[in-house]
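Audit log entry. Action: structure prediction of a protein-small molecule complex. Ligand: flavin-adenine dinucleotide. The ligand was supplied as SMILES and no pocket hint was given, so placement is left entirely to the predictor. Protonation state taken as written. Sequence taken verbatim from the request; no trimming, no tag removal. Recorded inputs:
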Amino acid sequence: MPKHDPAPPPGFDKRRVFLRVGGSRTGADYVLYWMQAVRRAESNLALDEAIRIANDLGLPVVVYEGLRPDYPEANARIHTFIVEGMRENCATASGRRLRYVANVASVDSLDRDALVRLSKRAAVVVTDEMPGFIFPSQTAALARRIDCPLVTVDASTIVPMRELPKKEFAARTIRPRIHRLLPAYFAPFVSPEVSVDGAGVYVDIDETDVASREVNDIVAAAGVDASVDPSPWYRGGRRAGRERLGRFIERGLGHYGEGRRDLDFESTSRLSAYLHFGFVSPLEVALLVRDAGAGPENTESFLEQVIVRRELAFNFVFHEPNYTSVEALPDWARKTLAKHAADPRDDVSAADIEAGTTYDDVWNVPQRELLLTGEIHNQPRMLWGKKIFEWSPTPQDAVDTMIRLHYRYALDGRSPLTYTSILWILGLHDRAWGPERPIYGTVRYMTSDSFRRKFDVKGYRERVDRITGLSG
Ligand SMILES: Cc1cc2nc3c(=O)[nH]c(=O)nc-3n(C[C@H](O)[C@H](O)[C@H](O)COP(=O)(O)OP(=O)(O)OC[C@H]3O[C@@H](n4cnc5c(N)ncnc54)[C@H](O)[C@@H]3O)c2cc1C
Protein backbone atom coordinates (compact mmCIF):
# COMPACT_ATOMS: atom_id res chain seq x y z
CA MET A 1 0.00 0.00 0.00
CA PRO A 2 1.53 3.38 -0.91
CA LYS A 3 2.02 5.36 2.24
CA HIS A 4 2.06 9.04 1.55
CA ASP A 5 0.21 10.05 -1.54
CA PRO A 6 -2.82 7.92 -2.14
CA ALA A 7 -4.90 10.83 -3.41
CA PRO A 8 -8.38 11.11 -1.93
CA PRO A 9 -11.42 10.59 -4.15
CA PRO A 10 -13.00 13.73 -5.63
CA GLY A 11 -14.93 15.69 -3.04
CA PHE A 12 -12.74 14.67 -0.10
CA ASP A 13 -10.47 16.99 1.88
CA LYS A 14 -7.23 16.75 -0.11
CA ARG A 15 -5.08 17.82 2.78
CA ARG A 16 -6.18 15.27 5.35
CA VAL A 17 -7.72 12.30 3.55
CA PHE A 18 -5.79 9.30 2.16
CA LEU A 19 -7.48 6.76 -0.08
CA ARG A 20 -6.31 3.34 1.09
CA VAL A 21 -8.75 1.14 -0.84
CA GLY A 22 -10.79 2.43 -3.79
CA GLY A 23 -14.03 1.25 -5.36
CA SER A 24 -17.65 1.76 -4.44
CA ARG A 25 -20.52 -0.16 -2.91
CA THR A 26 -24.23 0.34 -3.47
CA GLY A 27 -26.97 -0.89 -1.18
CA ALA A 28 -24.89 -0.33 1.96
CA ASP A 29 -26.46 0.06 5.40
CA TYR A 30 -24.11 2.62 6.94
CA VAL A 31 -20.76 4.40 6.87
CA LEU A 32 -18.32 2.86 9.34
CA TYR A 33 -15.92 4.96 11.39
CA TRP A 34 -13.23 2.79 12.99
CA MET A 35 -11.99 4.82 15.97
CA GLN A 36 -8.43 3.60 16.37
CA ALA A 37 -6.30 6.46 17.59
CA VAL A 38 -8.47 9.55 17.93
CA ARG A 39 -10.68 8.35 20.74
CA ARG A 40 -13.27 11.11 20.97
CA ALA A 41 -16.79 11.32 19.62
CA GLU A 42 -16.80 15.07 19.02
CA SER A 43 -14.35 17.64 17.63
CA ASN A 44 -12.89 14.81 15.57
CA LEU A 45 -12.12 15.54 11.92
CA ALA A 46 -12.07 11.84 10.96
CA LEU A 47 -15.50 11.25 12.46
CA ASP A 48 -16.69 14.47 10.81
CA GLU A 49 -15.55 13.09 7.46
CA ALA A 50 -17.53 9.88 8.09
CA ILE A 51 -20.63 11.91 9.01
CA ARG A 52 -20.26 14.08 5.91
CA ILE A 53 -20.05 11.02 3.64
CA ALA A 54 -22.97 9.35 5.39
CA ASN A 55 -25.12 12.48 5.10
CA ASP A 56 -24.37 12.66 1.35
CA LEU A 57 -25.42 9.03 0.94
CA GLY A 58 -28.43 9.28 3.26
CA LEU A 59 -26.96 6.66 5.61
CA PRO A 60 -26.34 6.46 9.37
CA VAL A 61 -22.85 6.25 10.89
CA VAL A 62 -21.60 3.29 12.93
CA VAL A 63 -18.65 4.12 15.20
CA TYR A 64 -16.59 1.06 16.08
CA GLU A 65 -14.15 1.38 18.99
CA GLY A 66 -12.27 -1.82 19.69
CA LEU A 67 -9.69 -2.70 22.31
CA ARG A 68 -7.62 -5.81 21.76
CA PRO A 69 -5.74 -7.65 24.51
CA ASP A 70 -2.60 -8.18 22.42
CA TYR A 71 -1.07 -4.76 21.73
CA PRO A 72 2.56 -4.51 22.94
CA GLU A 73 2.73 -4.61 26.76
CA ALA A 74 -1.07 -4.66 27.08
CA ASN A 75 -1.87 -4.11 30.75
CA ALA A 76 -4.44 -2.91 33.26
CA ARG A 77 -3.07 0.65 33.38
CA ILE A 78 -3.39 1.31 29.66
CA HIS A 79 -6.64 -0.64 29.35
CA THR A 80 -8.29 1.23 32.23
CA PHE A 81 -7.37 4.62 30.78
CA ILE A 82 -8.84 3.65 27.41
CA VAL A 83 -12.02 2.02 28.78
CA GLU A 84 -12.71 5.10 30.91
CA GLY A 85 -12.68 7.02 27.64
CA MET A 86 -14.92 4.47 25.89
CA ARG A 87 -17.65 4.94 28.44
CA GLU A 88 -17.83 8.64 27.63
CA ASN A 89 -17.57 8.04 23.90
CA CYS A 90 -20.57 5.76 24.12
CA ALA A 91 -22.66 8.50 25.76
CA THR A 92 -21.46 11.28 23.46
CA ALA A 93 -21.87 9.25 20.27
CA SER A 94 -25.37 8.14 21.22
CA GLY A 95 -26.27 11.76 22.02
CA ARG A 96 -25.19 12.68 18.49
CA ARG A 97 -27.38 9.94 16.93
CA LEU A 98 -24.35 7.84 16.00
CA ARG A 99 -24.48 4.07 16.52
CA TYR A 100 -21.59 3.37 18.90
CA VAL A 101 -20.19 -0.18 19.06
CA ALA A 102 -17.56 -1.10 21.67
CA ASN A 103 -15.66 -4.34 21.77
CA VAL A 104 -13.15 -5.03 24.57
CA ALA A 105 -11.89 -8.50 23.76
CA SER A 106 -10.04 -11.08 25.83
CA VAL A 107 -7.51 -13.44 24.28
CA ASP A 108 -10.24 -16.11 24.19
CA SER A 109 -12.97 -13.88 22.80
CA LEU A 110 -10.87 -11.96 20.28
CA ASP A 111 -12.88 -11.86 17.06
CA ARG A 112 -10.31 -11.25 14.32
CA ASP A 113 -13.00 -10.88 11.67
CA ALA A 114 -15.18 -8.33 13.47
CA LEU A 115 -14.06 -5.33 11.44
CA VAL A 116 -14.15 -7.16 8.16
CA ARG A 117 -17.70 -8.31 8.96
CA LEU A 118 -18.74 -4.79 9.91
CA SER A 119 -17.22 -3.47 6.70
CA LYS A 120 -19.35 -5.86 4.58
CA ARG A 121 -22.37 -3.62 5.05
CA ALA A 122 -20.50 -0.31 4.91
CA ALA A 123 -20.51 2.08 1.95
CA VAL A 124 -17.14 3.43 3.10
CA VAL A 125 -14.85 2.72 6.05
CA VAL A 126 -13.15 5.76 7.58
CA THR A 127 -10.33 5.50 10.10
CA ASP A 128 -7.53 7.56 11.63
CA GLU A 129 -4.26 8.29 9.82
CA MET A 130 -1.80 7.85 12.66
CA PRO A 131 1.93 7.28 12.20
CA GLY A 132 3.86 4.90 14.44
CA PHE A 133 3.09 2.07 16.89
CA ILE A 134 0.64 -0.52 15.55
CA PHE A 135 -1.67 1.88 13.70
CA PRO A 136 -0.30 1.72 10.14
CA SER A 137 -0.06 -2.08 10.21
CA GLN A 138 -3.59 -2.43 11.63
CA THR A 139 -4.93 -0.25 8.84
CA ALA A 140 -2.91 -2.14 6.23
CA ALA A 141 -4.26 -5.45 7.57
CA LEU A 142 -7.84 -4.23 7.16
CA ALA A 143 -7.04 -2.82 3.71
CA ARG A 144 -5.95 -6.28 2.53
CA ARG A 145 -9.24 -7.81 3.54
CA ILE A 146 -12.06 -5.43 2.70
CA ASP A 147 -13.93 -4.90 -0.50
CA CYS A 148 -15.34 -1.41 0.02
CA PRO A 149 -13.52 1.95 -0.01
CA LEU A 150 -11.25 2.65 2.96
CA VAL A 151 -10.01 6.15 3.72
CA THR A 152 -7.78 7.39 6.52
CA VAL A 153 -8.05 10.92 7.89
CA ASP A 154 -5.28 12.86 9.58
CA ALA A 155 -7.14 14.17 12.62
CA SER A 156 -4.18 14.25 15.03
CA THR A 157 -2.35 17.32 13.86
CA ILE A 158 -3.27 20.95 13.42
CA VAL A 159 -1.30 21.49 10.21
CA PRO A 160 -1.90 18.25 8.28
CA MET A 161 1.14 15.97 7.93
CA ARG A 162 0.72 15.99 4.17
CA GLU A 163 1.39 19.74 4.06
CA LEU A 164 5.02 19.01 5.02
CA PRO A 165 6.11 16.67 2.24
CA LYS A 166 9.62 15.95 3.57
CA LYS A 167 11.24 14.90 6.82
CA GLU A 168 12.25 18.10 8.57
CA PHE A 169 15.75 18.57 9.89
CA ALA A 170 14.96 20.25 13.22
CA ALA A 171 12.54 22.58 14.99
CA ARG A 172 14.19 25.55 13.33
CA THR A 173 13.33 24.24 9.85
CA ILE A 174 9.74 23.18 10.54
CA ARG A 175 8.85 26.29 12.59
CA PRO A 176 8.64 28.82 9.72
CA ARG A 177 6.70 26.34 7.58
CA ILE A 178 4.21 25.65 10.36
CA HIS A 179 3.76 29.34 11.04
CA ARG A 180 3.16 30.02 7.36
CA LEU A 181 0.55 27.26 7.06
CA LEU A 182 -1.09 27.67 10.47
CA PRO A 183 -3.57 30.49 9.72
CA ALA A 184 -5.47 28.19 7.34
CA TYR A 185 -6.02 25.63 10.12
CA PHE A 186 -6.18 27.61 13.34
CA ALA A 187 -9.96 27.93 13.58
CA PRO A 188 -12.60 26.19 15.72
CA PHE A 189 -14.21 22.94 14.55
CA VAL A 190 -17.48 23.18 12.70
CA SER A 191 -18.85 19.64 12.89
CA PRO A 192 -21.73 18.47 10.67
CA GLU A 193 -25.04 17.40 12.21
CA VAL A 194 -25.93 13.74 11.73
CA SER A 195 -28.81 13.41 9.22
CA VAL A 196 -29.82 9.77 9.70
CA ASP A 197 -30.18 8.36 13.21
CA GLY A 198 -28.03 5.26 13.70
CA ALA A 199 -29.66 4.14 16.96
CA GLY A 200 -31.40 1.07 15.57
CA VAL A 201 -28.64 -0.28 13.34
CA TYR A 202 -28.06 -4.01 13.92
CA VAL A 203 -24.43 -5.18 14.01
CA ASP A 204 -23.29 -8.77 13.90
CA ILE A 205 -20.53 -8.68 16.51
CA ASP A 206 -20.20 -9.04 20.29
CA GLU A 207 -20.62 -5.69 21.96
CA THR A 208 -19.13 -4.78 25.33
CA ASP A 209 -21.51 -2.84 27.51
CA VAL A 210 -19.14 -0.02 28.42
CA ALA A 211 -22.02 2.21 29.49
CA SER A 212 -23.14 0.23 32.53
CA ARG A 213 -20.48 -2.33 33.41
CA GLU A 214 -17.75 -1.35 35.89
CA VAL A 215 -14.49 -0.36 34.24
CA ASN A 216 -12.55 -2.69 36.57
CA ASP A 217 -14.72 -5.65 35.55
CA ILE A 218 -14.29 -4.93 31.86
CA VAL A 219 -10.52 -4.69 32.26
CA ALA A 220 -10.34 -7.83 34.42
CA ALA A 221 -12.38 -9.78 31.87
CA ALA A 222 -9.94 -8.76 29.13
CA GLY A 223 -7.30 -10.78 30.96
CA VAL A 224 -4.44 -8.36 30.29
CA ASP A 225 -1.38 -8.13 32.56
CA ALA A 226 -2.70 -6.91 35.91
CA SER A 227 0.74 -6.27 37.41
CA VAL A 228 0.82 -2.66 36.18
CA ASP A 229 -1.79 -0.85 38.25
CA PRO A 230 -4.11 1.78 36.82
CA SER A 231 -2.80 5.27 37.48
CA PRO A 232 -4.07 6.71 40.78
CA TRP A 233 -3.63 10.13 39.22
CA TYR A 234 -4.62 10.12 35.58
CA ARG A 235 -8.19 9.19 34.76
CA GLY A 236 -9.00 8.43 31.14
CA GLY A 237 -11.53 10.17 28.93
CA ARG A 238 -12.40 13.47 27.43
CA ARG A 239 -13.96 15.00 30.53
CA ALA A 240 -10.82 14.41 32.63
CA GLY A 241 -8.69 15.82 29.80
CA ARG A 242 -10.85 18.94 29.47
CA GLU A 243 -10.86 19.45 33.26
CA ARG A 244 -7.08 19.14 33.34
CA LEU A 245 -6.80 21.67 30.53
CA GLY A 246 -9.09 24.07 32.40
CA ARG A 247 -7.06 23.72 35.59
CA PHE A 248 -3.80 24.29 33.75
CA ILE A 249 -5.15 27.44 32.10
CA GLU A 250 -6.29 28.68 35.50
CA ARG A 251 -3.21 27.77 37.54
CA GLY A 252 -0.23 26.95 35.33
CA LEU A 253 -0.40 28.83 32.05
CA GLY A 254 0.12 32.25 33.65
CA HIS A 255 3.72 31.31 34.48
CA TYR A 256 4.32 28.55 31.89
CA GLY A 257 7.18 30.41 30.16
CA GLU A 258 9.33 30.08 33.26
CA GLY A 259 7.30 27.52 35.19
CA ARG A 260 7.71 24.64 32.75
CA ARG A 261 11.28 24.48 33.92
CA ASP A 262 10.12 23.79 37.51
CA LEU A 263 9.45 20.37 38.93
CA ASP A 264 6.12 21.49 40.32
CA PHE A 265 3.29 19.27 39.08
CA GLU A 266 1.09 22.26 38.24
CA SER A 267 3.69 23.97 36.07
CA THR A 268 2.92 22.13 32.85
CA SER A 269 -0.38 20.93 31.42
CA ARG A 270 0.21 17.16 31.85
CA LEU A 271 -2.03 16.70 28.82
CA SER A 272 0.28 14.41 26.85
CA ALA A 273 -1.64 11.20 27.62
CA TYR A 274 -4.94 12.89 26.76
CA LEU A 275 -3.49 14.20 23.52
CA HIS A 276 -1.99 10.82 22.75
CA PHE A 277 -5.26 8.90 23.00
CA GLY A 278 -7.10 11.69 21.24
CA PHE A 279 -9.31 12.45 24.26
CA VAL A 280 -8.54 16.11 23.58
CA SER A 281 -7.45 17.59 20.29
CA PRO A 282 -4.33 19.72 19.90
CA LEU A 283 -6.46 22.28 18.07
CA GLU A 284 -8.91 22.81 20.92
CA VAL A 285 -6.04 22.96 23.43
CA ALA A 286 -4.14 25.50 21.34
CA LEU A 287 -7.22 27.67 20.68
CA LEU A 288 -8.19 27.83 24.36
CA VAL A 289 -4.62 28.67 25.33
CA ARG A 290 -4.35 31.33 22.61
CA ASP A 291 -7.50 33.01 23.87
CA ALA A 292 -6.76 32.71 27.61
CA GLY A 293 -4.97 36.06 27.90
CA ALA A 294 -1.95 34.61 29.71
CA GLY A 295 0.56 37.02 28.17
CA PRO A 296 2.61 36.59 25.01
CA GLU A 297 5.60 34.81 26.58
CA ASN A 298 3.53 32.10 28.26
CA THR A 299 1.16 31.69 25.33
CA GLU A 300 3.88 31.49 22.69
CA SER A 301 5.98 29.16 24.78
CA PHE A 302 3.06 26.73 25.16
CA LEU A 303 2.01 26.96 21.50
CA GLU A 304 5.62 26.25 20.48
CA GLN A 305 5.40 22.93 22.38
CA VAL A 306 1.91 21.81 21.47
CA ILE A 307 2.15 22.83 17.82
CA VAL A 308 5.75 23.13 16.55
CA ARG A 309 7.49 20.49 18.69
CA ARG A 310 4.58 18.09 18.64
CA GLU A 311 4.15 18.34 14.87
CA LEU A 312 7.90 17.93 14.34
CA ALA A 313 7.49 14.54 16.02
CA PHE A 314 4.56 13.60 13.76
CA ASN A 315 6.55 14.75 10.73
CA PHE A 316 9.48 12.53 11.74
CA VAL A 317 7.51 9.34 12.32
CA PHE A 318 5.29 9.93 9.27
CA HIS A 319 8.29 10.17 6.96
CA GLU A 320 10.86 7.93 8.66
CA PRO A 321 10.25 4.15 8.43
CA ASN A 322 13.14 3.50 10.88
CA TYR A 323 11.65 5.62 13.63
CA THR A 324 12.62 3.12 16.36
CA SER A 325 16.22 2.75 15.21
CA VAL A 326 19.50 4.59 15.68
CA GLU A 327 19.78 4.26 11.90
CA ALA A 328 17.42 7.25 11.75
CA LEU A 329 19.87 9.52 13.61
CA PRO A 330 21.75 12.21 11.71
CA ASP A 331 25.19 11.23 10.39
CA TRP A 332 27.15 13.25 12.94
CA ALA A 333 25.35 11.49 15.81
CA ARG A 334 25.79 8.01 14.40
CA LYS A 335 29.50 8.65 13.82
CA THR A 336 30.21 10.03 17.27
CA LEU A 337 28.24 7.24 18.98
CA ALA A 338 30.10 4.63 16.94
CA LYS A 339 33.44 6.18 17.89
CA HIS A 340 32.55 5.79 21.58
CA ALA A 341 30.86 2.40 21.31
CA ALA A 342 33.56 0.62 23.29
CA ASP A 343 33.85 3.21 26.09
CA PRO A 344 33.36 1.58 29.51
CA ARG A 345 29.89 1.99 31.00
CA ASP A 346 28.64 1.71 34.59
CA ASP A 347 27.21 -1.67 35.34
CA VAL A 348 23.53 -1.01 36.08
CA SER A 349 21.14 -3.93 35.74
CA ALA A 350 17.99 -3.82 33.64
CA ALA A 351 16.04 -4.86 36.76
CA ASP A 352 17.33 -1.88 38.77
CA ILE A 353 16.52 0.47 35.92
CA GLU A 354 12.99 -0.85 35.66
CA ALA A 355 12.39 -0.78 39.43
CA GLY A 356 13.95 2.67 39.91
CA THR A 357 16.50 1.23 42.35
CA THR A 358 19.78 2.22 40.70
CA TYR A 359 22.70 3.77 42.64
CA ASP A 360 21.57 7.17 41.30
CA ASP A 361 19.05 8.59 43.77
CA VAL A 362 18.24 11.54 41.49
CA TRP A 363 17.48 9.34 38.47
CA ASN A 364 15.35 6.95 40.51
CA VAL A 365 12.75 9.65 41.19
CA PRO A 366 11.39 10.09 37.63
CA GLN A 367 11.46 6.33 37.11
CA ARG A 368 9.37 5.90 40.26
CA GLU A 369 7.04 8.64 39.11
CA LEU A 370 6.58 6.70 35.86
CA LEU A 371 5.93 3.43 37.71
CA LEU A 372 3.39 5.03 40.02
CA THR A 373 1.53 7.49 37.83
CA GLY A 374 2.09 6.56 34.18
CA GLU A 375 3.98 9.70 33.31
CA ILE A 376 7.23 11.56 33.94
CA HIS A 377 7.26 15.30 34.53
CA ASN A 378 8.60 17.19 31.52
CA GLN A 379 11.78 18.45 33.13
CA PRO A 380 13.54 15.23 34.25
CA ARG A 381 12.75 13.34 31.03
CA MET A 382 16.03 14.36 29.48
CA LEU A 383 18.04 13.12 32.46
CA TRP A 384 15.93 9.96 32.51
CA GLY A 385 16.83 9.19 28.91
CA LYS A 386 20.48 10.27 29.05
CA LYS A 387 21.27 7.96 31.96
CA ILE A 388 19.56 4.98 30.34
CA PHE A 389 21.75 5.67 27.31
CA GLU A 390 24.84 5.86 29.52
CA TRP A 391 24.00 2.57 31.26
CA SER A 392 23.08 0.55 28.15
CA PRO A 393 25.54 -1.68 26.27
CA THR A 394 24.74 0.01 22.93
CA PRO A 395 22.72 3.05 21.81
CA GLN A 396 20.15 0.74 20.19
CA ASP A 397 19.78 -1.15 23.49
CA ALA A 398 19.06 2.20 25.14
CA VAL A 399 16.38 3.02 22.56
CA ASP A 400 14.82 -0.43 22.97
CA THR A 401 14.78 -0.11 26.78
CA MET A 402 13.22 3.35 26.68
CA ILE A 403 10.56 2.27 24.21
CA ARG A 404 9.73 -0.82 26.27
CA LEU A 405 9.44 1.19 29.50
CA HIS A 406 7.20 3.67 27.71
CA TYR A 407 5.00 0.92 26.27
CA ARG A 408 4.68 -0.77 29.63
CA TYR A 409 4.21 2.13 32.01
CA ALA A 410 3.63 5.44 30.23
CA LEU A 411 0.12 6.58 29.41
CA ASP A 412 1.55 8.86 26.72
CA GLY A 413 4.11 6.29 25.63
CA ARG A 414 3.11 4.99 22.18
CA SER A 415 3.02 8.30 20.41
CA PRO A 416 5.15 9.86 17.64
CA LEU A 417 6.47 12.03 20.48
CA THR A 418 7.73 8.93 22.26
CA TYR A 419 9.96 7.74 19.42
CA THR A 420 11.15 11.21 18.42
CA SER A 421 12.00 12.25 21.98
CA ILE A 422 13.84 9.00 22.64
CA LEU A 423 15.96 9.46 19.53
CA TRP A 424 16.45 13.12 20.50
CA ILE A 425 18.30 11.80 23.55
CA LEU A 426 20.83 10.42 21.03
CA GLY A 427 21.04 13.49 18.79
CA LEU A 428 17.94 13.56 16.57
CA HIS A 429 16.83 17.13 15.71
CA ASP A 430 19.83 18.37 17.71
CA ARG A 431 23.39 19.45 16.89
CA ALA A 432 26.83 18.43 18.10
CA TRP A 433 27.92 19.87 21.45
CA GLY A 434 31.48 20.16 22.73
CA PRO A 435 33.58 19.14 24.47
CA GLU A 436 33.69 15.54 23.33
CA ARG A 437 33.03 13.17 26.25
CA PRO A 438 33.20 9.46 26.99
CA ILE A 439 30.17 7.46 25.81
CA TYR A 440 28.36 10.60 24.55
CA GLY A 441 30.97 11.84 22.12
CA THR A 442 29.47 15.14 20.99
CA VAL A 443 25.85 14.23 21.77
CA ARG A 444 24.31 16.66 24.28
CA TYR A 445 25.28 15.65 27.78
CA MET A 446 23.65 15.78 31.22
CA THR A 447 24.53 14.60 34.72
CA SER A 448 22.45 13.93 37.80
CA ASP A 449 24.61 16.36 39.75
CA SER A 450 23.92 19.23 37.37
CA PHE A 451 20.23 18.35 37.52
CA ARG A 452 20.34 18.35 41.33
CA ARG A 453 22.02 21.76 41.34
CA LYS A 454 19.39 23.30 39.08
CA PHE A 455 16.20 21.80 40.44
CA ASP A 456 14.49 21.13 43.74
CA VAL A 457 14.97 17.36 43.62
CA LYS A 458 14.10 16.99 47.30
CA GLY A 459 10.69 18.60 46.79
CA TYR A 460 10.13 16.52 43.64
CA ARG A 461 10.99 13.31 45.50
CA GLU A 462 8.59 14.21 48.31
CA ARG A 463 5.82 14.88 45.83
CA VAL A 464 6.44 11.55 44.10
CA ASP A 465 6.43 9.80 47.50
CA ARG A 466 3.06 11.34 48.31
CA ILE A 467 1.46 10.38 45.02
CA THR A 468 -0.21 7.14 45.95
CA GLY A 469 -3.57 8.05 47.38
CA LEU A 470 -3.81 11.38 45.55
CA SER A 471 -6.79 11.61 43.28
CA GLY A 472 -5.78 14.22 40.73
C1 LIG B 1 13.16 10.89 26.85
C2 LIG B 1 11.86 11.60 26.55
C3 LIG B 1 10.72 10.85 26.36
C4 LIG B 1 9.51 11.48 26.05
N1 LIG B 1 8.42 10.69 25.85
C5 LIG B 1 7.24 11.26 25.50
C6 LIG B 1 6.10 10.45 25.30
O1 LIG B 1 6.16 9.23 25.39
N2 LIG B 1 4.93 11.05 24.97
C7 LIG B 1 4.83 12.41 24.86
O2 LIG B 1 3.74 12.91 24.59
N3 LIG B 1 5.90 13.21 25.06
C8 LIG B 1 7.12 12.68 25.38
N4 LIG B 1 8.20 13.48 25.58
C9 LIG B 1 8.10 14.92 25.26
C10 LIG B 1 7.71 15.83 26.44
O3 LIG B 1 8.60 15.61 27.50
C11 LIG B 1 6.28 15.58 26.90
O4 LIG B 1 5.41 15.82 25.81
C12 LIG B 1 5.86 16.50 28.04
O5 LIG B 1 6.65 16.26 29.16
C13 LIG B 1 4.42 16.22 28.40
O6 LIG B 1 4.08 16.91 29.54
P1 LIG B 1 2.98 18.04 29.49
O7 LIG B 1 1.79 17.55 28.75
O8 LIG B 1 2.80 18.52 30.87
O9 LIG B 1 3.75 19.12 28.60
P2 LIG B 1 3.45 20.65 28.37
O10 LIG B 1 4.70 21.38 28.66
O11 LIG B 1 2.22 21.09 29.07
O12 LIG B 1 3.24 20.73 26.79
C14 LIG B 1 1.96 20.58 26.17
C15 LIG B 1 2.08 19.57 25.07
O13 LIG B 1 3.05 19.99 24.11
C16 LIG B 1 3.72 18.85 23.58
N5 LIG B 1 5.14 18.87 23.97
C17 LIG B 1 5.68 19.32 25.12
N6 LIG B 1 7.02 19.16 25.10
C18 LIG B 1 7.33 18.58 23.93
C19 LIG B 1 8.55 18.15 23.31
N7 LIG B 1 9.72 18.30 23.92
N8 LIG B 1 8.49 17.58 22.10
C20 LIG B 1 7.32 17.41 21.45
N9 LIG B 1 6.12 17.81 21.97
C21 LIG B 1 6.13 18.38 23.19
C22 LIG B 1 3.05 17.64 24.21
O14 LIG B 1 2.00 17.20 23.37
C23 LIG B 1 2.53 18.20 25.52
O15 LIG B 1 1.49 17.44 26.08
C24 LIG B 1 9.44 12.88 25.93
C25 LIG B 1 10.60 13.64 26.15
C26 LIG B 1 11.80 13.00 26.44
C27 LIG B 1 13.03 13.84 26.61
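Audit: result stored. The chain has three domains: 1-155, 157-194+236-319, 326-466. The two ends are 44 Å apart (CA to CA).
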